[in-house]
Design goal:
It is built from twelve helices and 13 strands. Strand 7 (about 220-225), helix 8 and strand 8 form a beta-alpha-beta unit. It has helices spanning about 55-70, 80-90, 95-120, 120-125, 145-160, 175-190, 205-215, 230-240, 255-260, 280-290, 300-310, 355-360; strands spanning about 5-20, 25-40, 45-50, 135, 165-170, 195, 220-225, 245, 270, 295, 320, 335, 340. Helix 1 (about 55-70) packs across helix 2, helix 1 crosses helix 3 (about 95-120) and helix 5 (about 145-160) runs parallel beside helix 6. The chain is about 40% helix and about 20% strand. The strands form two sheets. Strands 4, 5, 6, 7, 8, 9, 10, 11, 12 and 13 form a ten-stranded mixed beta sheet that branches. The chain has about 350 residues and is an alpha/beta fold.
Amino acid sequence: MGLIENARAWLCTLPVENVRTDAVQEFTKQETIFVEINTATGVQGIGYSYTIGTGGAAVLSLLRSVLLDVLIGLDADRPEAVWRMLCSATRATMVGPVTSLALAAVDTAVWDARCKASGQPLWIAAGGARSQVPLYDTEGGWLHLSTEELVERALNARETGWPGIKVKVGKPRASDDAKRLGAVRDAVGDGMDVMIDANQSLTRAEAVRRAAAFADFDIFWFEEPLPADDVTGHQRLAQTTTIPVAVGESIYSVSKFREFLQVGAAEIVQVDVARIGGITPWLKVAHLAEAYNVDVAPHFLMELHVSLACAVPNALYVEHIPQLRAVTDDEIAVVEGHAFPPSNPGLGISWDRKAVDRLRVA
C-alpha cells in the first residue's frame, strides 16, 4: 500500500512564450499550482493544474487549508478512493473552477505516484489504447494577428508537419473572420484541417450566421461558439450546421458533459484534465464520449494530454501549445505531426526543480 505520509503545495507563475489573444481575453501568464506527495514506500508524486492569470492563490489556499490534510493516510494506489474522499471534504464548493483545479493538482500527483510505484507510464496505466496521437497548432492563429501573419504561420505549420491548425474568430463583423479564414484555406489547400475557436463570445443567432458564412472553408470544428453552460444553444446550433460543434474546455463536471452528449450538443469533447478535476474524472468523460460515439480532443496541457489521449481509443487530436518549457528538462517527442507519450513511469514530465523554485510565488 502506498499510504500518503506528507503533502505540500505551492504556486509558480510561468511566462507565456507568445502573445495570445482571443475574442474575450489576453493570456499574459500561467499560474501553475503544484502538489507533491510522498508515500510510506518512498514514492514521490508531483501533480499540477493551472489558471490563465488569476485565481491561483485561491486554489492554493483551498489545498493548504483543507485538502492536503485530508490526504494523509490515504492510499495513492487507489486514486478513485482518494478523489472521492477529497470531493467529500469540499462538498460545499462543488462544482466549480477553484475546487476542480485544486482536485486536479492532487489527483495528478496521486496518479504520478501510482504509476511510478507500478513502473508504468501514465498512458499504459490509464488504458494504453494507442502509441501516438496527431497534433494541431494553435500558436499561429491568435486573433490579434493580421491576415498576412495568419497565412504565414499556417504555411509554417504545414511545413512543420502539423495535420491541423486552429484560427481564432470573433472579429466585430462576420465578414472580417471570413476573409481571414478564406485566406488561410486558400494558402494551405484542402489537405490540412482548419479549426476555429470563438471562446464563448457569440450569441446563438450570431453563431448560426457565422457558421453559414464559414461553410465554404471546410472547417473541421467550431469551438466554444457560445457560453460554456448553454446546452440548449449549442444543441440548436449543431442542428443548423454541418460544422462539428466542439465544447468542453470550460466545463467542470462529468455530469455537465453528459447533458451535452445526451442532446447532441457536443460533437467533439475538449475535456481539460485540470478543469475537470484530474485524471480520474478525465477518463470518465473520455469513456462517456466513446459511449456516444464522440471523439475527444483535449484542451491545452499537452504535456499531460498526450499520455491521456493515447490511453483512450477515441482521441482525435491534441492541442500543440507548449507552456512548460520554462520548468521542464525535455519535451514531448513529435514525429511528422504526431506526438508520442513518455515511456518513463509516472506522468512522464521531467521537472527542472531549480527553475520551479526560481518561479515560485512567495
